Amino acid sequence: MKRILLIEALANSGPYVLDAARSLDAHVFVATHEDVYESYPAALRDKIHGTVFTDLTDPDRALAELAAFARATGIDAVAGCWEFFTPLVAHLAQRLGLPGNDPLRAQACRNKAEMAQAFRAGQVPAPATIVVDSAGQAEGALGRAGIGFPVVVKPAEQGGSWGVSVVESPGQLAAAVRHAQSWPIAAPHGLPMDQRVVLQEYVDGPEFSLDTVVWRDEYFHMPLVEKHTTGGSYRAETGHTCPAALGHADVRAVRAATERALQALGIRNGVAHTEVKLSPGAGPVVIEVGARLPGDHLVDVVRRASGIDEARAYLQAVLDEKPDVPEPRQGACAIRFLTPPRAGTFRGVTVPGRHDGLVDQHLTTPPGAVVGGAHDNSARIGHLVFTAPTPGQVNADAARILARTRVEVS
Ligand SMILES: Nc1ncnc2c1ncn2[C@@H]1O[C@H](COP(=O)(O)OP(=O)(O)O)[C@@H](O)[C@H]1O
Ligand SMILES: [Mg+2]
């Protein structure tokens, strides 16, 4: 029986990783903080073989304590779910002599300022990017770098579109930089976040994500996923469709850009979630990479669409077994997130009429809760999942049912 040490399971992909471990007949030990473990849902705890408690906000101490635990327990592989702990995963794997990513470049997988630098060094097609410490520096720094409006403003460290905004003119810049600095600490562990702010050239075009399992520097790509976001100032994700309806040449180009990005970040054994825009003028432009499985239930969406279990393939890679990534079967799956039409008290969701292709629905917010507007992914109150034989059909089914779906707010 193989033993896997998973650094923090309280993430969207956590239950998928734990199910995948069971399918591989492996035991999972979860490293977390005792107080955070208290908040684990019972269904998540039931999937875990054992726990080891440490302070994940103190990387040196966590590394020493987890290495000692791993040696005493006979751990065969180290894995992670949460982006902010991917550097710790890389360092621990290296210390134990187990397969993993390059620890020297691992910080660039969680920090967008360092990621931009790694992309420049690796000649990855990526937006022109500068980094500032404060709102007062932003306009001058953009001028010196020759970056014109619109610009994208984002926290150096965050996720889920929190603090990300598209700014059309210099007058909105200072407020956007301050907005990006609104999260000095990340819950639930209380990790301090880099308060620098990234300013980026705006890239036009449709957006996609590509998940890649990497084993011994070999790339196993999942089907490409079409990403749907809001337009305007805030870019919250509204849904995903797998596979994206793109031609072979575009898929090849996105894969090539992704592989350059993974090389630049030292991702050599594990999994990566890469977000790419397909610019009409410049082709694929890499927006960001996480050295982790995707969130947003994409593990489920990809599996329903293609039959491929990327969580299982990821665990195989860190166990140093060849990942099982078959040719995708014919099929498509879409997830759409439900958001309130306005701020208020959430009352419930109704989906009247026929439910063609609707295979799953889930509310994450209880009726009676106070909800805000859709600025980032925290506005979601639940989601719907659809399947159909083709991406065109699943997008049409989702659009039709979503148009009828009522999210009631009073
Ligand atoms: N340079 C850019 N040009 C155009 N859109 C962008 C750019 N950077 C980010 N976005 C949009 O904002 C979203 C969130 O930004 P992202 O860098 O992915 O941050 P997060 O880590 O919060 O997901 C992206 O999915 C994309 O839609
Ligand atoms: Mg993103």
Question: How is this structure best described in words?
Answer:
- The chain is built from 12 helices and 22 strands.
- It is an alpha+beta fold and 410 residues long.
- Among the domains are: 3-107, Rossmann fold (3-Layer(aba) Sandwich), CATH 3.40.50; 128-201, 2-Layer Sandwich (Dna Ligase, domain 1); 330-410, ATP-grasp fold, B domain (D-amino Acid Aminotransferase, Chain A, domain 1, 2-Layer Sandwich), CATH 3.30.470.
- Strands 11, 12, 13, 14, 15, 16, 17, 19 and 21 form a 9-stranded antiparallel beta sheet that branches.
- A hairpin with a 7-residue loop joins strand 13 (225-229) and strand 14 (237-242).
- It starts with a strand and ends with a strand.
- The site of adenosine-5'-diphosphate (ADP) has 19 residues, from strand 6, strand 15 and strand 16.
Q: Please state the overall shape, judged from the principal axes of the Cα atoms.
A: globular
> Which distinct ligands sit in these coordinates?
adenosine-5'-diphosphate, magnesium ion
Number of strands: 22
Q: In percent terms, what proportion of residues is strand? A: 25-35%
Computed CA radius of gyration, to the nearest angstrom: 21 Å
- Please name the CATH architecture of one domain: 3-Layer(aba) Sandwich
So what's the CATH class of one domain? Answer: Alpha Beta
Helix content: 25-40%
Low-confidence stretches: none
Number of helices in the DSSP assignment: 12
Structural class: alpha+beta
**Average pLDDT taken over every residue:** 96
What is the name of the CATH topology of one domain?
Answer: Rossmann fold
N-to-C span: 53 Å
Q: Biggest sheet: strands, sense, closure? A: 9 strands, antiparallel
